Give the backbone structure.
Amino acid sequence: MLTVTTVNVNGLRAAAKKGFLPWLEATTADVVCLQEVRAEAGQLPEEVRAPEGWHVLHAPAAAKGRAGVSLYSRREPSASRIGFGSEEFDGSGRYAEIELPGVTVASLYLPSGEVGTERQEEKERFMEAFLEHMVKLREKAAADGREVLICGDWNIAHTERDLRNWRANQKNAGFLPEERAWLSRVYDEAGYTDVVRHLTPEGEGPYTWWSYRGRAFDNDSGWRIDLHVATRGLAARAAHTRVERADTHPERWSDHAPVTVAYDLG
């Protein structure tokens, strides 16, 4: 089994003080993908930067205090890469990948966007460039007899089942028709599968992000935006999934919850 967890930590230094480290010590995951790290490696405590038993790849953003992704792997990768060949985005701390036996695992932090602003234009440029990368990555992996798994905060809820308050968000970034259509292209044209939805085809959610404002967490008024997106061969081997939602609001160490999937590679 290969067990992979993805979580947006909403600032790794802050998360480390709130409970990330005990979680990391207890997890059974073989690979952990982090997003919104918001720190350079040298700014992290040693037990977070390079915890015992893990091989770690940090990809900070050139803009200090923003974005940043990391991958923790119990097995030493045969190769690693930061960025996906984009002059605009390779220094933005939004993508990194590692090579493990038979599978490429990536951590993605797709821009959140904001309607009517440069941030939304940036998100659209990223989406266009990243879709092209996904197609090339899948084709290369297929030629090499490998699978691909891109985990992360995709910042798009695909359908009405993926956020509780969808009616009020139809004109907001994260649930725009064009964003949702782009995610459909990821699945229909680029040849990938939403693994958690594949494993849980019925019902709403499971949600992975809840605003700190109001009682969103207590009311489970959330969004499902933290995804495992895999090539179809790997998605077919997904055995089970869980969202590691905290029991109570004070026990949260991020506004996102870890999303874990076990893949049967045997």
The radius of gyration is 17 Å. The chain has one domain: 2-263. The first helix runs from residue 12 to 18. The helical segments are 12-18, 20-26, 46-49, 118-143, 177-188, 195-199, 232-235.
